[in-house]
Amino acid sequence: MRAAASGGTTRTACLWVPDWPVVAALVVAGLGPETPAAVTGGPGGRIVAVSAPARSAGVRRGMRRREAQARCPDLQLWAADDARDAREFEPVAVAAEAVVPGLEIARPGLLLLPSDGAARYHGSEHELARELTEQVAVRTGHECQVGVADGFLAAVLAARDDAVVPPGASAGYLAPRPAAVLVHARPADRALTELVDLWRRLGIRTLADLAALPDAAVAARFGDLGVWAQRLARGQDVRPPARRRLVEDLAVTEELDPPAHRVDVATFAARRLAERLHEDLARHGLACGRLRITARAVDPVTGEARTLERLWRTDDTLGGLSAARITDRVRWQLEGWLTESSLGRGEAPAPIAGLTLSAEEVAPAGALQPRLWGPGAGEDLRARRAVERVQALLGGDSVLTVRLQGGRDPRDRVQLVPYGEQVPPERAPDRPWPGALPPPAPSVVLPEPVPAHVLDAAGRPVVVDVRLAVSGPPARVVVPDGVAGADGGTGLDAAVVDWAGPWPVAERWWTARSRRRVFLQATVEQPGGPVGLTLGLLLSASGGAWVLEAVYD
Q: Which Gene3D superfamilies match (predicted)?
């Protein structure tokens, strides 16, 4: 699947079982697909997956339990369970592997397979898709859809459409689709959902809009997640096509004596292996794109040994593959191998006598996850030691780090904590904050708000009354000379190009320490800059006095 192709893309077949969390829950409960069912999870226990009968009754993802049950009184509900999803998906993977060897699991319910050689063997990519769906239906009884395309996202969407995208046509296939389809590549990723919503407000509504943005601008403004999303929007693979070969140091093995019959016993050994593999990757400054899990199972009757093997996709732009996450994947796979219900043929599970974890498609960690300090060259460790040395000389509270916390304005959302200390946030970041400043966040937050004057076209101060009506449209913003202004220099006097607001924020209004403010966003002409260059300002007023809070780039 990873053979290089033109444009850095590969022909990938994607096998998708719709509504897999619900399908897995129904299998475990012994119920048929005609049962209206849903799976709940996440904040508030909302619906995260729905069966087709429940969907026809009006149940939708994102609904609250009570609303879903009101629409469908016979609805069966189960809590989300990653281990259950992975365990019950193993028979599907076995059925697909009978057609195409060497598959990888992107997540339970979604398989990626190499299509080039298999398509030639079966005659065409359409025949390959037909053979996969038939094998899964015959061996497991589950209905699936198969799509073939260039690149990861195009293959996933093609599977949802049950289509084969011709070679070289993936970019055109993706271009007219809304940017929101990116969530199919990484469901339940809150950061990606928020980023897609931000793009919608900025006018980036389709994948073509995202693909057309300059690479440097996307990397600077939206970080690693934006770069990852743009690669997918262009129909490219999420990792570079160049690979390094697996080296012996990045495969760890442990023999289990006596062999493990239970998942918890095998997982205990897997945890040690995961920690060793993670340490090896960190020591070499590497990250891996795939994790290969190999187990040696011994037949309890004949004593014959057989090899069980599965490949998991592990790439993540938001953080490395930690030892805990490696352990989770191994535990899910062990449950698939050691649970009788997952075998589907009435066979007794064979105990595990040996485990091997291999990091595949390894590359320098900085190539997959760009960071301020490149871990591959050891700068991370040297920088950490330097900071700890300064802290030892000046005291623990002398070196502070910035952490995001809850709040309504940019200054409130910043918490300074001593380096290396686990200090609980003063305000929980995951709670709702009505009236909070919407993204994107300002690029510069002034250490302290500075006095400012907001004037209308006649030069009179702009006043906001109790009904949030302004006395006149803002025409100029003035920061007096001698006061540090937007550029940290000597004030500001600029014409307003556009403005938004005001909106009120009343905090602790029931106490004597209440704080009432109104916020205003204004775009002004850049002082001393070229014609047409603008600057964004965040202003607030309290008691009739305006202050400059922050600046947008």
A: 3.30.70.270, 3.40.1170.60, 5' to 3' exonuclease, C-terminal subdomain
